[in-house]
Amino acid sequence: QVQLVESGGGSVQTGGSLRLACASNVDTNTWYSMAWFHQGLLSERDGVASVSQSGTIMYADSVKGRFTISRDDAKNTLYLQMDSLKPEDTGTYYCAARRSSSGVALRLREFNYDYWGQGTQVTVSS
């Protein structure tokens, strides 16, 4: 029943920007944590950024200073603003969410999330 639908992917040049969106069919303020993951064609699915119910934000070192995660509860949408894009950012971006609390800030690991969208493709050309 849970649906997370990503959008906003596309093709840009190095240094360009994109804003990804993840629409949730349940209230975004009920998720304990929401996150973005990235997977290249031949790479593992790696955590990019997360935001908790309380507003705690974490970023992967590779995107810190370039990407910004945010949540708009009025629109039930999670966003990822991506600036200064690099070719290595190319790949599929997945929205993920977790319902239950952990007691600590969740690390950006795939197993920490329960629900997933189908992904949106980002291509960064050099």
Gyration radius over CA: 13 Å
Count of helix runs: 0
Number of strands: 11
Question: In this structure, how is the largest beta sheet organized?
Answer: 7 strands, mixed
Strand content: over 45%
Give the % helix: under 10%
Unreliable segments (pLDDT under 50, ≥5 consecutive)? none
Q: What is the helix/strand order?
A: EEEEEEEEEEE
Q: Indicate the structural class.
A: mainly beta
Shape annotation = globular
Average pLDDT, rounded to a whole number, is: 95
State the gist of this model.
With 126 residues, the protein is mostly beta strands. 0% of the residues lie in helices and 48% in strands.
Task: Describe the protein's architecture and organization.
- The protein has 126 residues and is mainly beta.
- It is 0% helix and 48% strand.
- The protein has no helices and eleven strands.
- It has strands at residues 4-7, 10-13, 18-24, 33-39, 46-52, 57-59, 67-72, 77-82, 91-98, 115-116, 120-125.
- Strands 2, 4, 5, 6, 9, 10 and 11 form a seven-stranded mixed β-sheet that branches. Strands 1-3-8-7 form a four-stranded antiparallel β-sheet, with no helix packed on it.
- A hairpin with a 4-residue loop joins β7 (67-72) and β8 (77-82).
- The radius of gyration is 13 Å and the shape is globular.
List the helices and strands and how they pair.
Layout: E1 4-7, E2 10-13, E3 18-24, E4 33-39, E5 46-52, E6 57-59, E7 67-72, E8 77-82, E9 91-98, E10 115-116, E11 120-125
Parallel strand pairs: 2-11
Antiparallel strand pairs: 1-3, 3-8, 4-5, 4-9, 5-6, 7-8, 9-10, 9-11
Q: Descriptors for this entry?
A:
11 strands; globular; 126 residues; 0% helix; 4-stranded antiparallel β-sheet; mainly beta; 7-stranded mixed β-sheet; single chain
